[in-house]
Amino acid sequence: MKAIVIEQCCKAEELHVSEVPIPEVKPDWVLVRVHAAGLNHSEALLRQFEADSDHIQTPIIPGIECVGEVADASDTHFHVGEKVIALMGGMGRSFNGSYAEYALLPAHHVFRVETDLDWVSLAAVPETYYTAYGSLFESLYLQRGEMLLVRGATSTVGQAAIQLAKAVGATVIAAARRESSFEKLQAIGADYCIIDDEHLCEKEWPVRPNKVLELIGLKTLRDSLLTVSRPGYVCHTGVLGNVFSLNGFDPIKYIPNGVFLTSFYSNFPTQQAIDGIFRLIRKNHLQPLYAKVFSLNEIVQAHTLLEKGGAGGKIILNLMDNS
User: Fold this and answer.
1) What is the 3-state secondary structure (H, E, C) of 224-254?
2) pTM of the model
3) Is 282 helix (H, G, I), strand (E, B) or coil?
4) Which candidate, 301, 321, 320, places its Cα nearest to that of 39?
5) Mind listing the pLDDT tens digit for each residue in 189-224?
6) Which of 214, 218, 250 is nearest to 235 (CA)?
7) Which end of the chain has fewer beta carbons closer than 10 Å to its terminal beta carbon, N or C?
8) Are 240 and 88 in contact (CB under 8 A)?
9) Cα distances (Å, whole numbers) of residue 308 to 97, 219, 235
10) How far apart are CA 190 and CA 187, in angstroms?
11) How far apart are CA 199 and CA 184, in angstroms?
């Protein structure tokens, strides 16, 4: 089969298509014929910085998510030909991932889906929409009629969160760094847009949001905690601000009275959550969002764009296109 194999840290232009054996099936694992895969920033970090680390056993096929059909169900509850998605659980890091025509994946991280979406649109869903869904409904407990502020709204997860929040009847405020982003954010469902100057708590709010999805991360977390109403909830999901730790963090002084701080970690998806996502997509006729599509042979262009940013949304690797 054709696959992208990383043997050590390398530049995007060093990536190339290799011919490797189709994985041999083993108990409790499912062989999936990969039709498409969403690209993620973590895969660029793996290639740039982590591949030489002891915890990564190279050579490795990257890719933390995919969509496709069951090619061999082994001893699992799946059946050959079933439409499935797979994500996380060590995929593309602890074992070979989705940058390949076939992927051997642990059954507990493979999920049936009922959908009429085409393969490329479906590939925009797994990691991005699961992260947004989990943040909104498993951590923030977002309800109809509530007001949600999304910081980092132009990110892939931010855009998905806007769609899903509107689908359940929430009012959505999208915070972005540039006014030029407002039209797009409103087109996908944002009720209001504001410039994120990292000092939102100082603005005069007619009504403050009672829920905040924090995708910038620790860089603006304190500001989010001071912005939300009382009682209010803040979910720390992203680290777009590239600040990864807070020295001297004192929760008693840092978290205001009456504000609840939570987070979302996407490594443990469930069939129940996946079913919930696709119910919302079907019921509300949502179109999963993506920006660029590349073939496996275009992996250099795809990873260059992934690394530099600027795609404006999800990048999809189309394994059915061998051009």
Assistant:
1) HHHHCCCCEEEEECCCCCCCCCCCCCCHHHH
2) 0.94
3) helix
4) 301
5) 999 999 999 999 999 999 999 999 999 999 999 999
6) 214
7) C
8) no
9) 22, 21, 27
10) 7
11) 23
